[in-house]
Fold UDP-N-acetylmuramate--L-alanine ligase.
Amino acid sequence: MAPAGTASDTLDRPHFIGIGGAGMSGVAKVLAMRGARVSGSDTKDSPIVGALRELGATVHIGHSAANLAADATSVVVSSAIRDDNLELVTARERGIPVVHRSDALAALMDGSRPIAVAGTHGKTTTTSMLAVSLRTLGLDPSYVIGGDLDAPGSSALHGEGEIFVAEADESDRSFHKYAPEVAIILNVELDHHANYASMDEIYESYQTFVGRVRPGGALVISADHPGARELTARVGGRDGLRVLTYGADAGADVRVLAVEPHGLTSEVTVRLAQSLGGAELTFTVSVPGRHYALNAVAALTAGAALDVPAAELAPALASYTGVKRRLQLKGTAAGVQVIDSYAHHPTEIAADLEAIRGGAGEGRVLVVFQPHLFSRTQELGTEMGEALALADASVVLDIYPAREDPVPGVTSALIIDAAARHGADVTAEHDRDAVPELIGGMAKPGDLVLTMGAGDVTDLGPEILARLQSPEN
């Protein structure tokens, strides 16, 4: 087997397997912007692949040993790449260093002031809020986000400023590779059941991540979330670690005094502890829901930890208007709004449905939900069904397997049965192509349709809109 490789000296001519993925494409983009000769492959063409080509990357569609250039200095992989991938096998046979995406990202952050955003939910939104608001203030940060802000390929940028903002993925423990100056932990729950067997394992993993914070650095962590409070108790005594809490708790360093919904936006009022200046600030968050407001407060607290004036950062947060797949409005047709949500964990499903309910007016909320991963459905299918009961009606698709093989007996029926037990109006649909016609017959003017899940359910939004615009409607 080829050596794992130290990323810093092998990224001149990297080859990315699965370059079009949300995480991989961001690292590839920053490397290309820094002058590396980037190549890669993916199973299909996409706007993200097109954006990488515009930066000079060579991207092959389909996986083949021939894709790997003779002068490649490394092959970059994520945990989703299987050992029998032809390009990975070829790299090992040729002795080309194999570098995990997290090692490549860690190398990109060398020499900067990194902010690493962790947590079971909300990482992409919080990272995006920081990136957008810091750019608004002219600080020109570098960033790597797990989703596009607006145009394809906008998930990453090489900036000239000293701050680097990145998501820190706990799913495969790859966030242990980073050494941030500021670590944000939004919440701590059990997820990624293929890699974690218990909450104790989750806590241990997050403790390792916190242990990587640079001496004199800061941990920004929720004062409200039970898992975050438990983690704070476990790590709070570490020498050289500044702990800053945020939330509605009376003892929080950045205390949330109010979150006032205004349609699909919120107005947030916070009070900073004396150590942070003691000011009371009110600012706008341009996406709905209390959980998104708390993400913004986490971003504000992290900025304060890096001495970015809170009175300047707070209004700059309003310039964040959303990220693709995080309650993203796909369009309106026949008086029906179609919104896309990445939510796939019960906590996320409930939070997005509550946020949408608050801004939906008198219309119904209709959900098209696609479960993500057999392991997650096996462990949390009942809770997913309970969360879907918050919708007026739901259509549940078959499980999107992603990187997993099927598990006997684990199907969407686990979710559907749980939703039905809670009195939900829920329909099973095994034919994805039938969904636009089904929703077209259900939706009425004033309703809101939510496509929800981490798989390809996102592609149904435009198809539903087209069906709603048809003369049959």
The domain at 111-319 is CATH 3.40.1190.10 (UDP-N-acetylmuramoyl-L-alanine:D-glutamate ligase).
